[in-house]
Amino acid sequence: MKENIFETIKRIDDNGKEYWSSRELAKVLEYTDYRNFLTAVNKAKIACENSGEVIHNHFVDANEMVQIGSGAEKPVETIYLSRYASYLIVQNSDPTKVVVAEGQTYFAIQTRRQEKTDNLVEDHNRVFLREEMKKHNMSLMQTASGAGVERFAIFQNAGYKGLYGGLTMQDIHIKKKLKKTQKILDHMNSEELAANLFRATQTDAKIKRDNIKGESMANLAHYEVGQKVRNTIDSLGGTMPEELPTPDTIGKAQMRINKSKKVKRIEAPDGLKK
User: What is the pTM of this model?
Assistant: First the structure.
């Protein structure tokens, strides 16, 4: 089985701790200009700080020697990234790229497995990915309509059935024990949302790239992409999406984030309330 590309560039330091080089990650994420990659890094640092984490625990400035020809070397600036930092960078990269969508799935699964990050970090991840799902679901529906899809419920179910091992939207709703008024996407953790975002962006891209026309062909494409995302999760040893825990509503996650920001604003630097 082919090793995941993000796994191949993972490094291990002298203490057995894993990390990634920003230079290598930029290449994998298909940035031709490292300066453009640093834009995603800066956004990731802001997200890291907003989640309550210490930036320099996850982003460490360093210098590396690189070859410039004829055996000569020169130092270049790089950043050594924790798994969580790498995850935030991938989140802030273009999700329409196949490799970025793969990275979102990879780091969501691996970060959850390794670190079991605190609830506030998970809330930030969920809110971010839920907003991405709204945008890319809208784009997917527009693309599907252009391909000739008229029965959107059937089209959506095709993607869910591929990703969830044959389960329809209604089946997932029942399995998660949700009320009729509750939306499935509002009760997914970050790992499950990342998998669904991968499904949506890559189906959108496939329909456009392959110039797919006709409702049945579009439905088939959605199913096949969903199935491939499921196979990717399986190859990484991840938990199938239908077996992941069902968190509370995304609205409550946003409320907790807002509350944490309010607390930070009223605390003085010495920890005393104003």
Answer: 0.62
